[in-house]
Amino acid sequence: MPTKPSKALLLSAITALALTLGVLGPFSHALGVRSIPAAGNYCGLPAGWSVPGGTLLEDTALLARLSEQSAVLLGERHDRLEHHRWQLDVLRALHAVHPDIALALEMFPRRVQPALDAWVEGELSEAEFLAQSDWHKVWRFDPELYMDIFRFARDKRIPMRAVNVESDLTRLVGREGFDAVPTDELEGVGRPAPPSAAYTDWLTTIYQMHLVGNRVGEHSERHLRNFIEAQLLWDRSMAEGIHGAIVESPGRLVVALIGSGHLRHGHGVPHQLADLGVSAQATLLPWDADFDCNELVDGLADAVYNLRDYGTRGPALDV
């Protein structure tokens, strides 16, 4: 079972949850737990790619393994430019060895798919794309954090897939619960697979620390259940979007850009993907100096990338 989440990770997760739910008032190796780093410490990770804990991974071998997957899930902190530069480097490297690729994006709800299609076809200016995709309503982060990725997809005609749902839907499930929402209002999302005990514990910790307020007893239990169900809906929507892109073109590699909280320890989207029959998947996470080394444990991800001096060391994967 993963270690107790750090305060920094909890706050990051809560911020992401709040944006969507509107509820705030947000290659495995055995290894041990490490201490919280001082500023600028990268938990002993070597430069470049490694398994959680520090064992160096060779770029070519990692790239070959990734190219054999059906889905490669790239984590992020949404507001960190270095994370998106790293994602773009990985995307470029994978496209070079596996051109049949699609890009699945947490940023967009399903209803804006026509705007993504038109963008990839070169039919929209950047301003038109942001307007027609309703960016400033559905995501609200600075679009320049992501635009180089979107430009690359357009230039290479990489299909972009909107895999999220409307925030109004996740808020509704957060208030009423999954079963209270009529099927025709679920945007086509099926019933999520039950969460693991560890994921339930993690979400419960977030809820109890920051969302409960003065709710007690049965009322609190109902709100906690609805809160977890809203998160599962969110995870399931993204997993189904990724799965749909895979089924649409057998042999395609789908690269997904998703907040790291949905990916860590395989609990969120990876768990739902496995329930949909996608076993050939890998999760990659960027690692920053202010991350808690207590989180760097066995099973966190298939590989992590040390972002120290990123931008001066070269691409995240050499091809």
How does this model look, in words?
α9 crosses α10 and α10 packs across α11. This protein is an alpha/beta fold and 319 residues long.
Summarize the structure in short.
With 319 residues, the chain is of the alpha/beta class.
So what's the CATH class? Alpha Beta
Strand content: 5-15%
Average pLDDT for all residues: 85
Q: What characteristic shape results from the CA principal axes?
A: globular
- How many domains? The number is 1
Radius of gyration: 19 Å
Q: Order of strands across the widest beta sheet?
A: 1-7-6-2-5-3-4
Discrete helix count? 11
Order of helices and strands: HEHEHEHHHHEHHHEHEE
Spans of at least 5 consecutive residues with low confidence:
7-39
Question: What oligomerization state is this entry in?
Answer: single chain
Distance between the termini: 36 Å
Helix content: 40-55%
Structural class based on helices, strands and sheet pairing? alpha/beta
User: Can you count the beta strands?
Assistant: 7
At CATH level 2, the architecture is: 3-Layer(aba) Sandwich
Largest sheet: 7 strands, mixed
User: Could you please say which CATH topology applies here?
Assistant: Rossmann fold
Question: Notable features of this structure?
Answer:
globular; alpha/beta; 11 helices; single chain
Note the topology.
Layout: H1 7-21, E1 48-50, H2 59-67, E2 71-74, H3 81-97, E3 101-109, H4 113-120, H5 126-132, H6 135-138, H7 147-156, E4 160-164, H8 167-176, H9 197-210, H10 217-248, E5 253-257, H11 269-275, E6 281-287, E7 303-306
Parallel strand pairs: 2-5, 2-6, 3-4, 3-5, 6-7
Antiparallel strand pairs: 1-7
